[in-house]
C-alpha cells in the first residue's frame, strides 16, 4: 500500500526567486525506506519540509504530496499539524539544538508525549522508559534525569529517535541522523534504526549526503542535485548501475574513499 506519494513537487522562494526544489516525484510504500541523497544545499531537507508545511510564508510549494489519499499541500493548518503530531515524525539534523538546554531529557520527553499522545504524565514517563530501552539505552531511568549537555551526541540522537518512535507514527523522517557523530557512534545509531525497521515495520525517509548510510538503511533512493532529482529507483540498482553522471561521481568517490581508508588501516596494522 502506498503511504506517501509526492507528485511534481516544486518549491520557490518568492523573495529571492530562487528555485529551491524542482519537479520532485516519488512513492513510498508502507514499511519501506526511502533515502534522499545529494550534496549540501541540493534541496533534500526542503523537499520534506515543504511537503509538511514547515516553511516560511514567502516560500511557495506546488505539486501534490499525498499522505494516504489526502494532499498535504492543500490541507488546513490544523490537519497538517495533526499529521505532524501523530503520523509523520521528523528527527532533525542537530539533536543538541532540538532539546532545550534548561530542562531534563525526561521532562522534555514527557511534555512531547503528553501533548502528542494525549496521555498523563505518569503514562508518559512509562512510555519514555520503554522507548529509551527500545533504542538500546540500558540506563533509561538515569538518562531521563540528565540535562542535554550531560549526554553524548549519540545518546541525544537516540533520545530523539525514541521520541519520534514513541508516537508510533506511520512515517519517520530522519534528516542527516548520523552527520554530527563520530564513526563508531554512527554505526550504533544505524544499528538502532535497523532494529526499529525490523521490529516496528515503520516507514522511513532518511536524508543524507552519505551513501554508506543510505545503502545500509534504504530500499529505494532519490538522488538530488541543484534542486532537481537526477535519479530514482531501487537503492541496489542505482548504486550498482548508476545512470546519471552525478550519481556515478558519488559512487566512484565513495569507492575511492573506502579503498583509501582500507589501505590506511592496513598500513596502521603493519606498523603496529
Ligand atoms: N528556510 C529557508 N528559507 C529559504 N530558503 C531556504 C531555507 N532553507 C533552505 N533554503 C534554501 O534552499 C536550498 C536547499 O536547502 P536544503 O536545506 O533543502 O538543502 P539540503 O540538500 O538539505 O542540504 P543540507 O544538508 O546542507 O541542509 C538552499 O539553497 C537554501 O539556500
Rg, Å, rounded:
19 Å
The strands making up the biggest β-sheet line up spatially as 6-7-8-3-9-10
CATH H level, superfamily name = P-loop containing nucleotide triphosphate hydrolases
Instruction: Assign the CATH architecture.
Output: 3-Layer(aba) Sandwich
The ordered H/E elements are EEEHEEHEHHHHHEHEHEEHH
Description:
This protein is of the alpha/beta class and 272 residues long. It has helices spanning 44-51, 77-87, 95-98, 105-117, 121-134, 140-144, 153-166, 183-200, 211-217, 235-240, 245-271, and strands at 2-13, 19-29, 33-38, 59-67, 70-71, 88-91, 171-175, 203-208, 220-225, 228-234. The strands form 2 sheets. It has a 6-stranded mixed beta sheet with strand order 6-7-8-3-9-10, sandwiched between helices. The protein has a 4-stranded antiparallel beta sheet with strand order 2-1-4-5. A hairpin with a 2-residue loop joins strand 9 (220-225) and strand 10 (228-234). It is globular, with a radius of gyration of 19 Å. The mean pLDDT is 90. Adenosine-5'-triphosphate (ATP) binds at residues 13, 20, 38, 40-46, 56, 59, 176.
Question: What is the secondary structure topology, with strand pairs?
Answer:
Blueprint: E1 2-13, E2 19-29, E3 33-38, H1 44-51, E4 59-67, E5 70-71, H2 77-87, E6 88-91, H3 95-98, H4 105-117, H5 121-134, H6 140-144, H7 153-166, E7 171-175, H8 183-200, E8 203-208, H9 211-217, E9 220-225, E10 228-234, H10 235-240, H11 245-271
Parallel strand pairs: 3-8, 3-9, 6-7, 7-8
Antiparallel strand pairs: 1-2, 1-4, 4-5, 9-10
Helix pairs in contact: 4-5, 5-7, 7-8
The structure holds adenosine-5'-triphosphate.
Amino acid at each position: 500500500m502506498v503511504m506517501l506519494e509526492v507528485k511534481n513537487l516544486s518549491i520557490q522562494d518568492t523573495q529571492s526567486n530562487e528555485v529551491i526544489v524542482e519537479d520532485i516525484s516519488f512513492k513510498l510504500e508502507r514499511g519501506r525506506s526511502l533515502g534522499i541523497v545529494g550534496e549540501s544545499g541540493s534541496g533534500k531537507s526542503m523537499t520534506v519540509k515543504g511537503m509538511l508545511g514547515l516553511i516560511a510564508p514567502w516560500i511557495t510549494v506546488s505539486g501534490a504530496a499525498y499522505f494516504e489519499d489526502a494532499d498535504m499541500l492543500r490541507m488546513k493548518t490544523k490537519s497538517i499539524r495533526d499529521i505532524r503530531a501523530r503520523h509523520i515524525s521528523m528527527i532533525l539534523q542537530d539533536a543538541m539544538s532540538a532539546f532545550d538546554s534548561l530542562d531534563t531529557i525526561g521532562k522534555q520527553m514527557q511534555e512531547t508525549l503528553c501533548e502528542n499522545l494525549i496521555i498523563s504524565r505518569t503514562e508518559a514517563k512509562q512510555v519514555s522508559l520503554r522507548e529509551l530501552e527500545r533504542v538500546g539505552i540500558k540506563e533509561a531511568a538515569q538518562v531521563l534525569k540528565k540535562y542535554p549537555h550531560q549526554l553524548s551526541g549519540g545518546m541525544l540522537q537516540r533520545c530523539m529517535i525514541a521520541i519520534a518512535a514513541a508516537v508510533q507514527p506511520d512515517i519517520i523522517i530522519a534528516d542527516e541522523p548520523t552527520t554530527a557523530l563520530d564513526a563508531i557512534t554512527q554505526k550504533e545509531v544505524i544499528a538502532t534504526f535497523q532494529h526499529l525497521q525490523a521490529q516496528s515495520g515503520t516507514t522511513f525517509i532518511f536524508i543524507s549526503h552519505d551513501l554508506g548510510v543510505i545503502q545500509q538503511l534504504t530500499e529505494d533512493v532519490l538522488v538530488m542535485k541543484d534542486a532537481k532529482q537526477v535519479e530514482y529507483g531501487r537503492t541496489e540498482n542505482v548504486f550498482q548501475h548508476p545512470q546519471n553522471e552525478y550519481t556515478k561521481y558519488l559512487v566512484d568517490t565513495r569507492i575511492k574513499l573506502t579503498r583509501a581508508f582500507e589501505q590506511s588501516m592496513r598500513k596502521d596494522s603493519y606498523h603496529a
